[in-house]
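Appendix B, example 12.
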Amino acid sequence: MTLRQADVIEFPANPFVALADFLVLLILVLMLIIVERSIVSSGMVKRLAVRRLQVQLVTSCTADRASKLPRSAESRRRVLAAAYGPGRDFHEFWYDGDLQRFRFTGRKFFTAGSTTLSAQGRLVLRSFGELLKAHQGDRARPGHGLYKRVIVQGNADAMESSSSDPGGWRLSMRRAEAAAAELARAGLAGEWVEVSARGIYDRAADSDSGGAVPDSRELQATANRRIDIVVVYSGDNALEYSRTLREAPAGGAGG
């Protein structure tokens, strides 16, 4: 039987050449694995740093951490602590990664069809704005504070729709603008703020009824006639802030 040239398997003259090629390939694969795990680990560290800031903002809404507000705002500190929590005027509705949503319900903020904030609503939003101001960073460098931006979302109840505003867009936008104005009066820089309208299309679940949309028309109104504020964090900035706290002398780290 005659073998053709194509049927002949050629082996390298020096077997160490093949071994060297295999080792180089193995090293490259290991390096890629190390880099990939490093990237994943870095992302997890950033997420943990962001979550620490989110928890800090939540606990700052309560009496035991009210010192995060300026000393000149003693009365508003008490208003904020009294208003915060499940079933009260506002609370942290959810967080997801770099996003943290706070819900300001309609019970104390807007009457039906109105875009005018109640006195209580203005106080709560002003106090919350002072908390956000404390961590907004350098106004000359938007996005370099502990969060990237603050999104103020206005909402309306279906019963508030009209022939001139069937989707409640204008009504909910004006509510968002009124809330953003209170944040600005507290000193929050406009460079960080976005205003949006959700109209009647983002129905809220009532936290006091097991997560179900309430059956009562009045409860629906108070659940949906509201303001949501979404704080968007920066993982890089949160990580840098954590490092700054670790490196600061004892007692020298400020909030």
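The helical segments are 15-59, 74-83, 106-109, 119-133, 169-185, 217-224, 235-247. DSSP finds seven helices and five strands in the chain.
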